[in-house]
Amino acid sequence: MSSEMLENHVFSEIKIGMSAEITRQLTQQEIHLYAAVSGDVNPTHLDKDYAEKSRFNGIVGHSMWSGGLISTILGTELPGPGTGYLEQDIKFKQPIKVDEFITAKIVVKKIKKKEKIVIFDCVCTNEKNEVVAEGTATVLAPIRKIKILRPDTPMISVHGKYHYEDTLAKSREYDALRVGVVHPVGASGIEAVADAVTEELIEPVLFGPKARIQAAIEESGVKGAEKWEIVDTKHSHDSAEAAVRSAVAGDIEALMKGNLHTDELLSAVVPSSAGLRTERRISHVFLLNVPTYHKPLMITDAVANITPDLAAKVDICQNAIDLWNVLFEEEKKRRPKVAILSAVETVTGSIPSTLDAAALCKMADRGQITGGDLDGPLAFDNAISMEAVKTKKIISSVAGDADILIAPNIESGNILAKQLIFLGGANAAGIMLGTRVPIILTSRADSIRTRLLSCAVAKAMAHARRQGKIK
């Protein structure tokens, strides 16, 4: 029978002693897929350290994975398409280790002609011919002949852990951060704050019209929120200005956007007279967990600077490098790899961003940008794909393995970040840098994990500033 076709055995064709078998290797990916589909995240299947200390002395597969092999034979080979699974009686004899080849075999044991029922003996053995599972399966055999093109197997990929898990864990070691939440006059704003309070990441101070905040707390149903400190203001502009004054005075160590527009918050932050800016240009960093990328990824600037000139890009680079070095202290043995993006990987006068990229790299060579390894111009594929780098024969310590992507302007940065979020399934936290306190930017559409990461990042930056590690 062609492997491209599925053809069944109808009841009248089935005889005592007929058999079929398949052999399949249990890989770590198989285990992850089974866990994802079934929800069975028993640590003996997924946690290497835990499993090694268990009685199995290592990761083992889900027992029912072998039962799935039996189901595969019944549904695709014998009897095949049209089979109705009625009953499975199976005993598991021993665990299946990662990378073991398992052979599942079924043999027709009994036929009930009146009911069109067939009972099979079933056994699964490993490479040593040791029985790992055995039992019986009872099916309702098909009575109509079926020959059909074998359906395509869905394309599925398994991705590793959440890249910022260690960042969240580390942030819990610091005292809760006193955060000024600007204008949280909606239930969503209160709920976002509550998540961070529950995780002991922040101690909130709410800036906004007191009556509206209290109404939002009541609507949210968040218990304990009525005890949070409130600074009464007249309106959203007043809320932003009052929060900035409090930050300048040192009463709070970070700002968080509530239920107001980002530009409205920044209008109180940006003026030099407000006293919150540093000598650096204010810039925004997206921290992305991209499922298809092998490590954490940062994109800057996709929010604050519309068409940054060379001087602004110097600060944008330095802000992002400082952030990376704070978050990944354990990786101080290496410097972050910073890719300066453009449309091409060659310097050309007709594309100004390539000239800026070349200048930034030379400035890093001369110590005008510190703490990171820069390379550019690099097209996006050359920045993140080692395969693309090899194809184009690019010699670079950054290309194909970037930690930080520097966008040439706000349009390209914003589009890139949102493509990764909405098409690439990335989680993205956001933070504003270049001010005396970090600014947490959250959205109502953000997941809980994203909101928590934004707070954790601000907490880590504030802790580093207290220790004098950053300006």
Notes on the structure:
The longest helix has 19 residues. The chain has 3 domains: 145 residues, Hotdog Thioesterase (Thiol Ester Dehydrase, Chain A), CATH 3.10.129.10; 116 residues, 3-Layer(aba) Sandwich (Rossmann fold), CATH 3.40.50; 155 residues, Isopropylmalate Dehydrogenase (3-Layer(aba) Sandwich). The protein has 471 residues and is of the alpha/beta class. The N and C termini lie far apart (71 Å). The chain is elongated and about 90 Å long.
What is the gist of this entry?
34% of the residues lie in helices and 23% in strands.
Main attributes of the structure:
471 residues, Thiol Ester Dehydrase, Chain A, 3 domains, Isopropylmalate Dehydrogenase, elongated, 11-stranded mixed beta sheet, 15 helices, 18 strands, 5-stranded antiparallel beta sheet, alpha/beta, Rossmann fold
